[in-house]
Structures
1.
Amino acid sequence: MYSYEDRIKAVRLYLKLGKRLGVTIRQLGYPTKNTLIGWYREFIAKQSLRAGYTRARDRYTVVQKQHAVQHYLDHGRCIAFTLRVLGYPSRATFSKWLDERHPDVRMRMVGRAPNVQHPMETKKAAVLELCIRDTSAEEIAKKVKVCRPTLYNWKNELLGPEAPALIKRHHESTPDPNSRSQSVTELQQQVDALEGNIRRLQLEHDLLKKANELLKKDLGVAPQLLGNRDKTMLVDALKHIYSLTELLAELKLARSSYFYHCSRLRMPDKYAAARVAMADIFHSNYRCYGYRRIRSALLQYQLHISEKVVVRLMKQESLTATVNKKRRYGSYLGEISPAPENIINRDFQAAIPNEKWLTDITEFQIPAGKVYLSPIVDCFDGLVVSWTLGTRPDAELVNTMLDTAIETVTVSESRPIVHSDRGAHYRWPGWLSRMSNAKLVRSMSRKGCSPDNASCEGFFGRLKTELFYPRDWQGITLEQFIQSVDAYIRWYNEKRIKMSLGSLSPMQYRKSLGLTA
């Protein structure tokens, strides 16, 4: 209920702005259009407004309220189904009844990834060693257990970007080698090249001759056009004269193909162990790994197999990853406040953790209802810094996520850029005050331009492609679904292989750089 001062202020501003409803509501942040029109008509009729409101009698009885809430709990906890069957009340009114009687029904879950900070003494010692080093910066970075860009960022932070990263020392120049020795070396190189050409021509001659003797091929046939079985027979006939590398290179025959044709009669199935390992990897990782990640994961089983073989074996074993589907929740409610500059500008590369954060909201619709996910993704390695799951896309969903993320950088002097779309959640007072108090930098995409937040959209796509779309969620409650999504995100941070990180997960990558324990 609005006070008399709030109502009269709104009416006077409405008259001052030329009776423009939209402009008035955007400046004040209240009320609705119909409410403001009602206040204006009352002011015109009476030249004033009532001092207060008389609360109307409740439209619904206690019995009706309890019956509606009990129907919701007994019939699958679906608000839309309950309202459709009973015919009352509105969604907002029913949600209020439900929160009053059962506040724990619509739950939400919060997660946070760990963060590691280095003391100032460590930074100073590392920068000093960098400036007077006799070795490479990469070795110093490994010694301090950070990545090389982080080491240079410390240098820029302490000494400024204009300071040199190495104090150069003068060394005595070495004399030039004797010109005569150079001539002898060049002549020897020419002799070696000529001998190599002679050997290559002799190899071509012998291949044609053996092809005619063994395979009854015409002397004009090109050995490279033969089948792999025929090529293998030629290699076996000439490998006592030439090296295997030379023969395979001349015939353009892969080593795997040669050894396969040599041993296929002795081996019942060369890839029996690989087939079992591939099936185990595929089914234990949400059935979402393609041939590249399968191949990287096979290295943990000490199985070194080419990508083409992995593709063939996956096809034979019917291990097919699902394809991407595009579907998303939209939270755009118009330009309710001025939008900040698009600082990220599609540059999703970060040299250090907590430099650039991306956030958005996505929707999951299952038979039991709808669930909303609000994460913060670090551009450094794709780590999900914090995330919140709930059944309503309200301000509490994003504010709780932001509070959790801020806790990870409270001890750090640097403040990340937080990039989002133009959704209403990122323009409400609660979000703006948290950003201001934490001294975080805001950045927003252009209106209706999802590629400006492509990296976060990519995370949603991977999550839905690998977890959501391939599964049947019939009979799964909202609480169980929330637990499943939370477990996936933790697996995504700690175990899921990213090829761009050297076949490591985000947490494993940070441990390899010494950024986390």
2.
Amino acid sequence: METILTLLQNLGDMGQTVVDFFESTPSYFEQIFIYLNAWYIKIRLVLLIKYLELSYRTAEFLLNEIGVTELIISTFNALPSEIRFYAFLFKIPQAVSIYLNFIATGFVLKMTRV
């Protein structure tokens, strides 16, 4: 008698498992869409970083073509030696170059936006 009750209990558990599967199917689809959305965000972020890198390299190229880098170098070389020493010690030419690259990158980003 107990084996029959165990068999019926197992059949009931199997039926409940099937019912639970169909009840939780919407959450499976929700998890799939969450996973796909996370991948979309990751791919978009990687592409935006690559776009920013391309814009930075374009800005560097433009500054070199215009001659801004040479202008900064020649201006700082024209300074008196003591001021030039401290300017290079505190890396002022590099700071000016980074700032101009920042402005030029912003310009390139604005010009290439569609």
3.
Amino acid sequence: MEWKACLVLTLLTTSLLCGCLARQEFPAPTDSSTDASIRLTLLTEENPPYNYRDTNGDISGSSTEVVKEILRRLNQDTDLEIVPWSVGYGRTLAEPVTGLYSTARTPERDSLFRWVGPIESYHFTFYARNGSGISLPSLEAARNAGVIGVVRDDTRHQYLVARNMNTLLLFPDDEACVRALMNGEIDLWLGSSDTAPETARRAGVSPEDLALLYQVTQVELFIAFNRETPEPLIRAWQDTLDEMKSDGSYPAILARYGRTSAAGMQPVMAPGDFSVPGETALTALTTLIDQRFYGIARSFEVLALTDEVKSGDWERIRPLLARLEKSDESARYWYARPDGSYYTTVDGLASASLFNRPYFPTVLAGNASLGTVVVSHSTGRSTGIVAVPVMDGNRVTGILGASVYLDLLTGELNDDLPLPATLYFFALDPSGTLSLHSDVQKIGQTISMQGSSEVVSAMEEILHREEGTVSYTAEGWHREVIFGTAPVTGWSCALGWITGTGEG
């Protein structure tokens, strides 16, 4: 919109910044950084391009090369094994000084392992046989589309179980899933768009025989170590990975496999160079975020006064919400009853309930709720909630809601807020969940998943102070951050920039 562009340009008139690329050589870690008597066991699975056995019988892949380079720099020896995922997962939980890669780090798994990473990223994607006639507009639709194949104990399996998806058939690996899909044993495969083409070829199937139906979410991949692995070893591995990211060797490895990474050489600013324009840009960021949620809430407040919405009849309410949603492709609109049952414009009556959602008591008390971050029951994606009560006198008779897709909101902010390449932004909701991030795969992660104690401490400070600045080192780069609180959503919004390498 023109008014939005004018607002942003006005706020950022004085914010033209310059950056330069900086690169610094890092000394190899000394032998004293780890105990040479400790021998690691590292496990992985067949999952190209991350990890697989090549035509020479060697374990290869983008993640494997990263692991081997860490081992080389630390002068460590280890055994690498390819095993079925469920075997590797169980062994890593049970056996000390054992690691498993490439492992999705999720809030549910976070306390089960020690983590080094991220080393890659991964999309959850539903596939069917080409020509099957199946379509999936949502995760809810997958519930009734037939039998879903997934790898046993994989994070995708855990994701579906957590959402009460019961029509599952479990397999040892993705190649088995693809073969089962093609022979009609299953109707859907929850795979990944990052690996599906090569997985299909290895299963003897043309990638063109797979139909990509619905992309659910994206997660970061790590090396997961048994909880009893010594802390100095974990720290040495993380420090070495961070050095690889800042000296350019990590992105070079990924590039050899056609992968890209946000790590590597970064635009750098001198410390303190951004304080004044930073405050201006931060004001623009918080304003745009709050206006996005407040605008939806205002529309709902008007709708809540109509006879159609007051009737509580979904067939009369749906056309009004569908009309709003048509002009807002970055959100899913819904109507809920006080008992928690709800309807979406795409799926109609949903199988889940909203009654235990953290925002629900607030709305039942007659107050609007804006900005709570949840993983949507209906879409499986990280969303920010707008929920407005429908009132009959002092009684709440229903709730008008929107689930704003946070990855798409991030994209909108990137378009509307013309920040220079030297800057990145993120936001935390009041619970400490990342509601926005320039690196969208971090959206939905908790503070505890952000890395070292230094990073976690900085994030906690951002969460618990109204405004201020912090500095910390993450992924090999020293960062400065200016932050403040958005008054409507209550989100802690932050702008960060890199001032040099971690040792600079």
